[in-house]
Amino acid sequence: MRNFTLGDFDFALPTELIAQHPAPERSGSRLLDGSAALPVDRVFHELPTLLNAGDLLVFNDTKVIKARLFGEKPTGGKVELLVERVLGGNQVAAHMRVSKKPEVGTTIRLHCAPGREDGLSATLLGRWPETAAGEPGAMFRLVLSNDSGDDPYTLLERHGHVPLPPYITHADEAEDEARYQTVFARHPGAVAAPTAALHFDEGVLTVLDASGVQRASVTLHVGAGTFQPVKTDDISAHHMHSEWYSIPPETLGAIAACRARGGRVVAVGTTTVRTLESWARTGATSGDTAIFITPGFAFQVVDLLVTNFHLPKSTLMMLVSAFAGYEHVMALYHHAIRQHYRFFSYGDSMLLARKHPHAPV
Description:
Strand content: 25-35%
Distance between the termini: 22 Å
Structural class: alpha/beta
CATH superfamily of the largest domain: QueA-like
Shape: globular
Radius of gyration: 21 Å
Largest sheet: 9 strands, mixed
Low-confidence stretches: none
Strand order of the largest sheet: 2-1-17-16-14-3-12-13-15
Number of domains: 2
CATH class of the largest domain: Alpha Beta
C-alpha cells in the first residue's frame, strides 16, 4: 500500500472554475460519469439512466440553518459568529471571528433583520466543548436571547445569514437561501450544505421513482470543519472534525432489502458515505463521528457515490480517492479541469464506483 502524503492530493485549479452561483436549473448541471474506466460527459438529469431498478439512493436530509450572525462588543469591536450547534437552554456553540476575544460574561449586541429590532444578543459563557484534559474547546458557548424569549432556531431563521463557504465571494442573497438547500431538507442543524444533493429536483426524483430506484435518508449535520484544511504532510496526523449523525430504522431496513435483491447502495454525497460507514464500523445508529477515510479504507456499505468536485488537499479528496482509486480520481479531476467543469459547492458533479470489493461485515 502506497504511503500517501498531503501533496498527493493537490492539483492546480483555475480560479474561474470555482462556481460562485448555482446552475440556472438544479438538474441542468453537468455530471461526469466516472463509474467506468473512461470518463463520459453528461448532464445531471441523465443520472436515472445510470442506475438500475432495485438500486437504493441514500440522501442526507439535513437542513442548513442561517448560522452566520454579525454584531458588536460593548467596546464597538465587530464580531462575527458562526453557530455550529444548538445546545440546551438557548445555548449555542459557535465559531467567533473578532479582533480580540471578549471576556466571559460579555454580552454581544447582534444585528437584527430590518424592521425586526427585538433586542437580539449573545452572552459569552465560555469555550466548547469541554475536554477531559481541561483544554479549551475550539468553539465558544453563548446564550442567544431576545426580548420575546424565542428559541435559537427561530432567532437564526429570522436574523441569521446563509453560511456560504469561504470560497464563495459574494454576500448571501435570496438565491442562496433557496439554492444552498436541498429540495428534501428536513432536520435543521447544518452549517454547510450536502452539496451533491443540490442537483436533485422534483423532476429527477420523479423519474427515479418511475425507474424503480428506491430512496432512503440519513441525517448528518455538516459542520464548518468540512472546510478545515489539512496542515500536516503526514495525513495520518490530521485531527478530523466531529459531526452528529442519525440513521432511522427504515433506512437500515432499506439497505438490508437492497442487499437481498442484489441492488446497489448509492450514497449521495460524502456526508452520506461518512454516516453509513461510521454505522458499519461502530454499530451506532446515532452520535458523533470523526471518521477519517483515506486510501486503504475498507468500505462496507456504499457501492456508488454521487459527489461534487472537492478542494485540493482536502479530506474529501482523500475520501473519494479511497473510494474509487487514487489514480482514477486524479485522472477524472484533470479531465474535469480540461473540460471546464465547475468546482465546489455550487459546481458540477460526478458519479463514482467503488474500486474494491466490500470488506467483510
